[in-house]
Specification:
The complex is a heterotrimer of chains A (about 375), B (about 475) and C (about 100). By secondary structure, chain A is of the alpha/beta class. Chain A is about 25% helix and about 30% strand. Chain A folds into 2 domains: about 160 residues, FAD/NAD(P)-binding domain; about 150 residues, 2-Layer Sandwich (D-Amino Acid Oxidase, Chain A, domain 2), CATH 3.30.9. Chain A is globular. In chain A, about 55% of the residues are buried. In chain B, strands 1, 2, 3, 4, 5, 6 and 20 form a 7-stranded mixed beta sheet that branches. In chain B, strands 8-16-10-11-12 form a 5-stranded parallel beta sheet. Classes of the chains: A alpha/beta (about 375), B alpha/beta (about 475), C alpha+beta (about 100). At the B-C interface, β8, α4 and β9 of B face β1, α1 and β5 of C.
């Protein structure tokens, strides 16, 4: 392609929530930002996830980031305006259905308290029942977090993208990175829509981030693409005022304001990075469906009208990669392993801090890119 | 699930293409199974034919073409092919496992080859008022005649096309009172259409039959030709139809029941959900699965036959079903295909009238995208033309990106009633050719199944 | 008004919202509803009344509730003796909209 090179200050690659939030914070702070996305904003993981906005159940390393993100979620209209109504706060509860689950839950709450975190609270069965009167099965108690919630993912990502543009960022969709080269002056990013020059590059390319890192001459990251699957049902009378999970399982269950249930199970199907799609292996969702009907017998009769999946990038330790790359002027923010949506606003802030040479207010050592010591 | 059920050929749909393929396959020594969602074979065109055949004279109004389906259904019943009725197929996997629901239980069978013969459906007709109770498609009127032997006295029919005239003629034969017929087809043929009509002379019977129906309808009903600017009136249910007649006058006809029609299109839910390649057909204004001359799709072992591969009618469907089965037999048995050229010729001859019909009864633009901003485009989510146009104006490259801005296509019908409309609206807005705009992405399950049904699959040991 | 053009005796009873209704075994439920003068069976998300349109299972506007609580298309349901169906789909549809 022989298009003229544009001199840009910061190039953010990837239009999911991490990239859009980063672009938004950088632009808000007066930086010159170009956000490039190979498909369209929110096309992949950020557009197809279950929409859970939770602090509950986080790896302790992630909790500070998650708590910081929640502050931004609670003032979301300041960042993204009207689209903030796509966030629905509600309590999040992860119930125990047997003694093993109960033991897991009690131990978890206790260990979090010892570490100074009090957002997860243990409830006995009677308290669970009073919060969820329509629950069918008996529980052995559960963990509750007040003020978590769920959001319509693509509207949130749209919100951050539009806010970034409003603050002066340039958004280019349908723009695929073909090569990255560091020279004396900065980065040359060669794309399907021309070459962009920048002082810094932020890698928020999701399931494609390892490939992008490789193109940039970074070490090989052990990122695996999978396709988590979700179903949405027909509309039903409201019986679930919370987002639910089950201790010892990966079920995610919520009921939207439309009355539709969204049921996911952490079940992962094959993903095809070239074809841009994940398979939909419906029978593999059966175990999650069974759990859902154990919780609410009425769900058994509800019709599933749609199943979908999207491509997400998973790290072997299920922790993201957030931090500076080996080379100067490169920052990574990827590998959120199907739980990055809620973290997005705080990740965007942290990546903006790293780009601008500031110390992020949240400790990020656990997410150090260098923890995978393999060389390309 | 009942693991271990395997068939050489699994056919989805017991219409003429499916039945013909099943007959051919069983004659060729293959173990064949048809999965069909109705209680008895026949598809749409020969719906309820075996039940009606018990007392033919009671349904004589259905006409000779309909009864020709009886011989086919009898031959199918006599063949060794199996039929599992009331089976709703919701997914075909990449390794040719067919998932379906039957009597409230989700199950699967595996197949050496699969033939998708799910036929056609009426194209969406997003006129203002099309969602009002009392408004139905002409296909619905015909289905009710065939299945329940039921019809509406005093109904108004609006639109055009072969199915339109046939159904009204059947209504008249049945003694039902037709209040009015509002015909949107042009009165005069263009020079190009006379040219296209020449191959139709290969099937003069069809042309004459059409002319006969149209003449009878003109004689026996309040008939209005060349109707434009059609709008359906009513608040909570239909009260009537307004249109501009051939002389430019605005007319309004009261109606308690209204049947509308602007042609049929392939039902591509299963073919698209199975990742088959499709191509846009500008002549029929719809998507066709890409197939070779035998109906094999872009996915090896998956075949398509009948109206689902392109609208060509019941006779051509039989030929295409036979062709697909012959190819599958030949591959399984390592044999040649001596009869194939005969069936290919027959299919060509049977479909020769199609370009003429497609041109003559091309749906008017105002029936593809509403003129009225308040007309409903996405029925399931109750989104108007204005709602969708606002979202398109935000700058979308296709119907899938549109889902990021509004819920069009995300309802129960999964785009069956709105995908073609949205596609045209995006084309009209940005000028991108319709084949580049593309279709809504269709994912399984293509028919709903309950959470409980899916949960029950976890009870079995066998993995998928 | 809908009427039978194929004469055949009504041999079973079904119940629509607990009201008994004579019918013929194997008839399409959506058609039976039209005979009973019922053209609207549920409400769209904007509250507008909807009823049977395509009669072949692609429009999803003929939704009824079966006795076991499943919401089904009336045009894909065939009459059986003693069958009980309910309209509208859920009472909450009315309350919610």
């Amino acid at each position: 392609m022989t298009m003229p090179a544009h001199r840009e200050r910061i190039i953010v690659i990837g239009g999911g929530i991490q990239g859009c939030a980063t672009a938004c914070f950088l632009a808000k702070r007066g930086q010159k930002v170009t956000l490039i996305e190979k498909d369209h904003i929110g096309r992949h993981a950020s557009g197809v996830n279950a929409g859970g906005v939770r602090r509950l159940g986080r790896d302790p390393c992630e909790i500070p980031l998650s708590l910081a993100a929640m502050d931004i979620w609670n003032a979301l209209d300041e960042e993204i305006g009207d689209n903030a109504d796509a966030f629905h706060p509600c309590f999040y509860v992860k119930v125990a259905l047997d003694e093993d689950g109960q033991a897991l839950g009690l131990e978890r709450v206790e260990s979090l308290r010892r570490a100074g975190f009090r957002h997860e609270v243990w409830l006995e069965e009677s308290e669970i029942r009073s919060r969820l009167p329509h629950l069918s099965g008996r529980t052995c108690g559960g963990i509750l977090v007040e003020g978590d919630g769920w959001a319509v993912p693509w509207r949130i990502v749209q919100g951050f993208a539009r806010a970034a543009v409003r603050h002066g960022a340039t958004l280019i969709e349908g723009c695929r990175v073909l090569g990255l080269r560091r020279d004396r002056d900065g980065w040359q990013v060669n794309t399907s829509k021309g070459t962009f020059e920048g002082d810094q590059v932020v890698n928020c390319a999701g399931a494609w981030a390892a490939e992008l890192a490789r193109l940039a001459g970074e070490p090989v990251f052990p990122l695996s693409p999978y396709a988590p699957m979700l179903v949405v049902t027909d509309r039903r009378p409201p019986i679930l005022p919370a987002v639910m999970g089950v201790l010892g399982h990966t079920l995610s269950l919520k009921q939207l304001d439309t009355g539709q249930f969204v049921i996911g199970g952490g079940v992962r199907a094959r993903a095809d990075l070239d074809k841009n799609r994940g398979e939909v292996a419906i029978p593999e969702l059966a175990a999650s469906m069974r759990l859902a009907t154990t919780l609410f017998a009425d769900i058994a009769n509800t019709q599933i009208i749609r199943c979908w999946s999207g491509i997400e990038g998973y790290m072997p330790d299920n922790l993201p990669v957030i931090g500076r790359g080996r080379q100067p002027g490169l920052v990574h923010g990827f590998g959120f392993s199907a739980h990055g949506f809620q973290l997005g606003p705080a990740v965007g802030e942290a990546l903006a801090d790293l780009v601008m040479g500031r110390q992020p207010r949240i400790p990020l050592e656990a997410f150090d890119p260098g923890r995978f010591e393999r060389v390309a | 699930m009942t693991a271990g059920s395997h068939y050489d050929l699994v056919i989805i749909g017991a219409g003429p293409a499916g039945m013909a393929a099943a007959i051919e396959a069983s004659e060729g020594g293959l173990r064949a199974l048809i999965l069909d969602d109705q209680p008895a074979p026949g598809g749409q065109v020969y719906r309820h034919v075996l039940q009606n055949a018990v007392r033919r004279e009671a349904s004589s109004y259905l006409g000779g073409d309909y009864w020709s389906g009886q011989a086919l259904a009898d031959a199918f019943a006599a063949s060794s092919a199996e039929l599992w009725s009331q089976s709703r197929v919701w997914q075909i996997t990449g390794d040719r496992e067919v998932f379906f629901s039957r009597h409230g239980a989700a199950q699967s069978v595996s197949a050496g080859a699969i033939l998708i013969a799910t036929g056609a459906m009426e194209r969406p007709m997003p006129l203002r008022g099309w969602t009002l109770p009392g408004v139905m498609s002409v296909g619905a009127a015909q289905t009710m005649l065939k299945t329940n032997g039921s019809g509406a006295d005093g109904a108004v029919f609006a639109g055009s096309g072969p199915l339109f005239y046939l159904t009204i003629w059947q209504y008249l034969q049945a003694g039902l009172a037709v209040r009015a017929v509002v015909d949107t087809a042009p009165a005069r043929m263009t020079l190009a259409q006379y040219w296209l009509a020449l191959p139709a002379l290969l099937q003069p019977g069809l042309l004459l039959k059409g002319l006969r129906w149209r003449a009878a309808i003109r004689r026996k009903t309040d008939y209005f030709a060349q109707a434009t600017s059609v709008a359906i009136n009513g608040e909570d249910r239909v009260t009537g139809l307004s249109f501009t007649d051939a002389s430019g006058q605005r007319q309004t006809i009261p109606a308690e029941h209204l049947f509308i029609h602007q042609g049929v299109v392939p039902n591509t839910s299963l073919t698209m959900a199975s990742d088959l390649a499709h191509r846009w057909c500008p002549r029929q204004l719809c998507w066709h699965p890409r197939t070779d001359m035998f109906g094999e799709s872009s996915v090896a072992g998956l075949f398509v036959a009948g109206d689902g591969m392109g609208i060509a009618g019941a006779a051509a469907a039989v030929s295409s079903g036979r062709l697909a089965a012959q190819r599958i037999i030949a591959r399984a048995r390592g044999r040649a295909l001596p009869m194939a050229p005969v069936w290919r010729f027959l299919k060509w001859r049977q479909a020769a009238i199609r370009p003429f019909l497609d041109s003559l009864f091309r749906p008017p633009d105002e029936w593809r995208v509403p003129q009225d901003d308040t007309a409903i485009v996405c029925r399931c989510e109750a989104l108007t033309k204005a709602d969708v146009a606002t979202a398109i104006a935000l700058g979308v490259s296709g119907p899938n990106q549109l889902k990021g801005y509004c819920r069009a296509g995300m309802g129960r019908c999964q785009g069956r009633m709105c995908a073609l409309t949205i596609q045209k609206m995006i084309h009209d807005h940005g000028g991108l050719p319709e084949d580049r705009v593309g279709h809504l992405r269709i994912r399984p399950p293509i028919r709903p199944l309950t959470v409980g049904e899916l949960a029950a699959l976890a009870n079995d040991d066998a993995g998928a | 008004m809908f009427r039978q053009v194929r004469t055949q005796p009504q041999d079973i009873t079904i119940y629509i919202d607990d009201r008994p209704c004579a019918a013929r075994a194997g008839d399409l439920l959506a058609n039976i509803l039209l005979h009973e003068g019922i053209s609207a069976v549920h409400a769209a998300p904007n509250g507008a009344p909807r009823g049977p349109y395509c009669m072949m299972g692609v429009c999803f506007d003929c939704m009824i509730t079966l006795e076991d609580g499943r919401v089904e298309q009336a045009c894909q349901t065939y009459a059986e003796d003693g069958m009980r169906i309910f309209l509208p789909v859920t009472r909450a549809d009315e309350a919610g909209q």
